Amino acid sequence: MDGLDGVVTGLTVNGNQNTDYQYFTRSINAEKTIITLVKQQDIPKDATIVINGVLEYKTYNTQPQGVPGNLTNLWPTVKFEFTYGTTCSFSQTPLDTPKIDVIDLDNKISFDDVDDAYGYRVYVYRDATLVYQQEINSGEVINFEPNLTYNYTVKLRAISNNINYLDSDFSDGYSWYLEVGQIELDPSIFCEYRIGNAAKEYVNFTWETDVSGNVVITLSGYAGDTGSFFRGNGMGADLSKFTVNSDPASNYFERSYGGDGTSTFTLVLKDGVSIVYGDKISYSSGMVEWRTSQEGNAYGEYSFIDYVYGSVCSGLPKVYVTPFAISFDPETDLQNFTISAENLTGDITINVPKGLSTNHASLSPDENGEIEETQITISWESGTSNGSIIKITGGGLAADVPILVNTTGFSEYCNKIIEFTADGKEYPAYLTISLSEDKKEMYFDIAPVYGDKAIWKSNSIKADKILVNGNAPITTPTRSQDLDDTRIIISLDDALADDDVVTFGDPIVWETKSADLQVNSNCYINPAQTYTVGLTCEVDKGPATNATISNSTNFTLYPNPATDIIHFNENMRSVALYALQGQLVLRAENINKLDVSNINSGLYLIKAVSDDGKSVSAKIEVR
Fold it and tell me: For the whole prediction, is pTM greater than 0.70?
């Protein structure tokens, strides 16, 4: 018993209550193992004292020697009656030590019971390391499942629940040889495992066991970043946050770390230690320090729980991407990267940010789980913001494969994600800002990231908070909101000019859904935001001529400009016509000409997929 911390009530002396502590007060020693009733007045000899109340104390449950148990609070109602002036001599006797007779081929243990035992517990050791324990009776099966052929040691202990007896000593060790087949470990659970609180500080962690038995923890850059490394102490100046089967990792490993600018942190196996494939290694609530190309001082407290010693990442589904980043500018509305893959368990999906499109929404592996090198074309439609991510998912991948999207020369607000977090959930939405042709109206459009709903609230983007180049307009702008609450219109008397900086918000307020489709009707950003006039979400290419070549595919359309029919020089599997703002205007399949006689005059983006699966894109004018 550890830490007796009693609260005694209901004490009487010859039937008289101890009201206002006239007979006794209570004190307790520093170790909280002895309660003393301190006499406050003379007590008649042979007086009968009764304590009838709640006794509060703490104790540890039964565990093997050297292994701490769980501290438990107890508060039983007790009644003690004794004669004042008497003493007692109290001692506890250990139970007799049981003896294991045999453990048979069915793993059933046999032993003789000992007097006054409440129960029995069996302990299985690999050398000095406790690897299993359970409560058991003679004739029952030891449910230990070894991961190593080994000569284990089994000990038995009798357990007491009688205050007069202590648990028994451990029995002599019983030699128990167990043989297992070849161990087949699952892949490491930490393969390109991402940490970081924002994209600029994301890095991947991989844990693997090398051929020498060392655990190698490798840090690699997210989305192909070549400037990501450990810094400072990496994962600690010592191994105090690492454990092996809950034991200190320093019993098994030494730390090897090259310092700032290195990409590995290694647990080097000590000679002669007892650790086997299948043992569990954890890093619990420890500091990790690293840097990336965009963040030189990244750090945080992280846990990596139950890495399986011996496991590696080879054989896992893997996608290879070249390059890891693509760039758009007003002169470039198409970009390509290649994908190949191995060991896939199903289709992979190419998830592009809102405002971009792809010629392949998904790819299927062959019967061997492989995808041969395939070109992916990404097209700029209504646009995306700098730093957005294309994610490749599915196929059994342990983690998403990211492709970074860089943009230059565009507005910052091309389907830019605005974020709000509450109760651990994120409630993002897309924000796009555009201007009327005369630049007297600003349009703030919102769209959902998750689910089907993102709307502005009536107190969002107030007209009287609008500033132009730091000054309030002479005439306060007016604010209106469309019927479906997805667009806010700010109207000004004077036209804006290129390079004007418009300050807005304070606050921005919206309603949308989280990834699990929970609704939050009060998402907000308080600080004011700025928008630079003259930067748009549109590419600047002029109308296409009669022949437009895209990604090395000969693709001819005519006439351009067109008035009624657009002709193609070969059959197209699918054709889509978009407004420059990204809205779909027409779609057709399996055609070699497209009727545009019923659409409004203007510039359009036409995207087509040929019969051989190649994607092509061009701008066309309809008159």
Answer: no
